[in-house]
Amino acid sequence: MRKGTKRKAREVGKGKSKQEEETNTQEQTATTEQLVGESVQEEPKKNEKGGVVKGRAKRAKIVKPDTQTEYFPDKRNLEDLWQEVFPVGTEWDQIDMVYQYKWNFSNLEDAFEEGGELHGKKVYLFGCTEPQLVFFQGQSKVTCIPVVVAVVSPFPPSDKIGINSVQREAEEILPMKQMKMDWVPYIPLEKRESQVERLKSQIFILRCTQRRAGLKHLKLERVKKFEYCLPYFYQPFAEDEFEQSTIVQILFPTEPPVFCEFDWEFDEPEEMADKFIEGEELSADKKDEFVAFVKEKVKEGKKSNREAREARKKAIQEMSEEAKAAFQSMKFYKFYPVTSPDAPDVSQVKSPFINRYYGKAHRVF
User: Fold this and answer.
1) Are 140 and 133 in contact (CB under 8 A)?
2) What is the β-pairing status of strands 181-185 and 353-355?
3) pTM over 0.85, yes/no
4) Cβ proximity of 305 and 245 under 8 Å
5) Fewest CB within 10 A of the end CB: N or C in the chain?
């Protein structure tokens, strides 16, 4: 082979090697830049004043666990109405027992809806409890059943409270406020964000502001008065059955005390005294004192009946025609809890009787 040919061949080989080296160098450079970009953070940028310009951080992607949406039933507008009404006359240590069940008063709520008995009317509500033997969850037991009485009237049916019991010698009629009770407007749930003074409520409830925590500072007699309270009502157009009653309660102060009912039309004080002496409930030396005590109570009873009749006649004479119409159109409605799986069934123990002042309800729900 000629020398020139060999030289040329070496130059061609040499050229290829150089080209391959350049290609390899470029690939290495690109690979290095890629690695540097993945592993090395860029230097923070600076503004004109030399401060560091913060970049927007990338948010980590949070994978939310699959959960089922939980739905709560919407509260009804008058759902807590029965709970807001004070259960007048209930013993303080029994009040919590009234709310041990989830009583359903949807019948009371429905009465205020369109077409209901109380819709569009001015109504005054008070509560009470009726201890009854009822059956629930396989057993029978005495339960304090909450009851709500609705009085349809253009004005409060009364501003007084009656206090009476078999343990008390005399009945008392006191102003409600003396027992920390009053009629207050009830605000439905959907309107409780509004300004109360701008609302024209048609529903008023009997509320008591006495705190149970403060009872320990009261005398026992004062505490017991709350338990003997009855919502008072005086209907001048209906002759009170007690105006004509010939029966008086006798609580003779001896040891032990003698309690009985005395009917002055049929009973004789001397005969009753002999009966108690014979039964060893009254000592013989107390007979004359007992007879005098009974005669005095009879005298008070007759005077009370006479004054009640006179007061009723006077009230009617002084009453305006508007007030007369209101009294004559006044209606009482009594609401018991409806049957539900969460509380005892009270459908068999309903009664139209409210109390000795209000008498019977016009309708029971």
Assistant:
1) yes
2) unpaired
3) no
4) yes
5) N
- Compute CA distances 287 → 2, 118, 270, whole Å: 169, 57, 8
| C-alpha–C-alpha distance, residues 141 and 133, integer Å | 5
Report the pLDDT value the prediction gives residue 241, as an integer from 0 to 100: 54
**∠ CA 205-353-145, rounded to 5°:** 65
The angle formed by the CA atoms of residues 243, 246 and 251, to the nearest 5 degrees, is 105
**pLDDT value for 354:** 92
Distance CA 335, CA 350 (A): 9
**What is d(CA 306, CA 76) in angstroms, rounded to the nearest whole number?**
50
Listed as ranges, residues in the chain with pLDDT below 70 are 1-75, 165-170, 191-201, 239-243
Determine contact, residues 261/249, Cβ cutoff 8 Å: yes
Quick one: pLDDT at residue 245? Answer: 77
Look at residues 96, 108, 124 and name the one whose alpha carbon lies nearest to residue 181. Answer: 124
For every residue of 124-165, DSSP letters joined together read EEEEEEEEEEEEETTEEEEEEEEEEEEEE-SS-S-SEEEE--
Look up residue 44 and give its two tokens: 């923070």
Inter-CA distances, 245 with 238, 261, 295, 305, Å: 15, 12, 16, 8
Decide if 107 contacts 118 (C-beta within 8 A).
Answer: no
- Give the integer Cα–Cα distance in Å for 105 and 84: 12
Residue 283 makes CB contacts below 8 A (sequence gap 6+) with 254, 277
* Gap between the Cα atoms of 223 and 90, Å rounded: 11
User: 293: which residues sit within 8 A by CB, 6+ positions away?
Assistant: 250, 252
> Regarding beta strands 172-175 and 160-163, do their DSSP bridges make them parallel or antiparallel, or are they unpaired?
antiparallel
- Assess contact for 90 and 56: CB atoms under 8 A: no
